[in-house]
Amino acid sequence: MSTDPDHRARAAIVGTAEYAPLRHYHGPLQSTLDQWTDLAALALADAGIPADRVDGLVCATDVYEATHLVPALLAEHCGWKVSFAERVDLGGASAVGMVWRAAMAIEAGVCTTVVCALPARPRPPVPEGGVDVSSDYARSDLAWGSPVARYEAPYGNLGPNVSYALAASAYDHEVRDAATARAHLVADQRLSASVTPGAVHFGKPVTAQEVATSRMIVPPIRLLEIVMPCAGGAAVVVSRTDAASTDRRRVVVSGFGEASSFNTPTYSHDLLDLPLRGAVERAYVRAGTTARSMHMAQLYDPYAIAVLLSLESAGFCRRGEGAAYVMDQGIGLSSRLPCNTNGGQLGFGQAYAAGGMTHVIEAVRQIQGLAGERQLVRNDRALVSGSGGNMSVQGALVLEGE
Amino acid sequence: MMALTDLLPDSDPALPFFEAAACGVLLMPQCTYCDELFFYPRARCPRCLANGVEWCWITGEGQVVARIDRSPADAPTMVVVSLMEGLQVTGQLVDDDATRAHVGSSVSWRHTHDCLVANPLIFALRADS
Asked: Does A7 score more than 60 pLDDT?
C-alpha cells in the first residue's frame, strides 16, 4: 500500500470530467440524477477505472429529484454498493469539501475509490401540479424562523451581490485604489480564459479599462467583476494512490482545511478577514508546506473582491495588501504566482456549485501537464480554495503532483 | 397592517427586542451567566450556551463599517453598523441622510414611527460627525 512516512493511506485525484459551461444550454434535458451518473461515468473513463470498483460517493445539494436520502438514491441509480455515502451542503465550498471528505475517508480506510459529482444543467420542466423541490432551495433564505428572514431580508441584505458589495465598500475604505486592482485582476483572468478551450470567454479578453467602465451593478461592484451563471457540471474520482494505475501523474490531496463561524458576514468579527485564513493554515500544516511553496493558486472567485480578500487570507500577502500585490505582480500566467489559470469562474464560467470544481479540475490539469496553451512550467503544487454562501464557509486543498 | 410581534408566540426569544424597539427603546440580549452581549436574540448565549437572558439598554450609537447604495436610486441605503457596545448589526440609513453617511461615519439609531416594526434597525448620521 502506498503510504507516507507515517504509513498513512494517501488519496489522489485520478480522473476528472467537466461539461463546458454554457450561458444558454440547448441540448437534451436530463434529470439531475442522470446528469450525476453521466458525469460519474465520464470521470471514471478518464481515470481508466471500471464502474464496479467505486465504493464511495459524495454529492451536494444540486440533485433535485429528492430533498433527502440522496446518496442512497445515487448508489441505486449508479448500481453501486458503497461503504461511504455522503452529501455536502457547503454551497460554493462544496467541491473542495467533497474532495477532502473523500480523501479523509480513504485515509481512514473506509473506502478506496470515491466519485464526487456536481450536475448543473437545466432539467426537464416540472409539469403543472408536479412536485418541484428546487423551489424550496430557492426560498430557503426566507424560511419562517430563519435569522436571515428576520434580521437581513427586511433591510435588503439578501443575495450575493449585496454581501460582496458590502465587503467591497469596507475594503475600499481601508485600501487605496482597490477598484483599479479589481479591474486589473479581472483583465488578467480574462486573458487566461481567452486561451482556455471551453471557457465562456474563450478568445474574448478584456482590458482593465473595460472592466473599470462596465455598468455599475451594486456600487462599488461593476458588471465585469461578477460571474455569470452557466449550465454545466463537473466530477472527479478520488482514489487511494495504490488503487489506481494510470499513465497520468497522480495528484495527491496532501492538505486540506475548512472553516466557518457565521452565515451572514455582519456577524463576523471582521468583514475583511475571511474564514479561509484558518482553512488554509490547516491545509498547509497538514501538507507540511507554506504559501511560498505554491506554484499556483486556484481561488474561488464569484466576484473580483473575493480574489483580493483570498490572496490576503491565503497568506500570499498581508491584510490590506491584496490590491498592491495585484498591481505589482499581477495574477496572470506569467506572474510569480499564477492564479485562476483557466480564467477562474469569472472567465471560464460559474456552473452553480460545479463552478467550485472548476478550480479543482484546473489545478489537476496544470499538475498533470494537460493545460495546453496555458500550461505552467512550475506545476508541482497548487492551493485551491472554495467559498460557500457569503464568504460564510470556506475550504482549502493543497494538491501536489507525485 | 399586522406587525411582526403579532405573529410571534410569547415564547419567542426576540419578542422583547421587537416590542421595545417599537416603543423607541433599543434593547439587546445579555447572558446572565457570562455577561456576553449579543445580537441577534436567540434562546441560548452564543458564547457559553447558557439559557439565561436579560435585556440591556444600549445607546444605539456606532460607526458605519460597510454600506451599499441600492438600485433603484430611491431604495434605502443598507449598512452594517458597529455599535459602540461592540455588536455589529445590519440596518438601513434614513433616506435624507443616505448621501452623507460613508464608511467610517458616526451614526445613531433613530426610532422611526413610520417603519414596520419588522425592521427597526434604522440609523441616521450623527449631527456632530
From this structure: yes
Between chains, do A173 and B91 touch, taking CB under 8 Å as contact? Answer: no
Ramachandran quadrant class, A313 (left: phi over 0; alpha: psi -120 to 50; beta: rest): alpha
Per-residue model confidence as pLDDT tens digits over A254-295: 999 999 999 999 999 899 999 999 999 999 999 999 999 999
Q: How far apart are CA B66 and CA B123, in angstroms?
A: 13
pTM attached to this predicted model: 0.96
Distance, in Å, from the CA atom of A308 to the CA atom of A344, rounded to the nearest integer, reads: 14
Which amino acid type is present at position A95?
A
Q: Please provide the average confidence, as pLDDT, over all residues in chain A.
A: 95
CA distance A257 to A273: 16
* Phi and psi torsions of A107, nearest 5°: -60, -35
Neighbour count for residue A22 (Cβ, 10 Å):
16
Q: Which residues of A touch B90 (CB under 8 A)?
A: 151-152, 155, 157, 264, 266
Tell me the per-residue pLDDT of A145-170, one tens digit each, with 9 for 90 and over.
Answer: 999 999 999 999 998 999 999 999 99
Q: Of all helices (H) and strands (E), which one includes residue A287?
A: helix A276-287
For A151, which of B67, B90, B102 is closest by C-beta distance?
B90
Interstrand relation of A113-120 and A56-59 (parallel, antiparallel or unpaired): parallel
Rounded distance between C-alpha atoms, residue A279 and residue A284, angstroms:
9
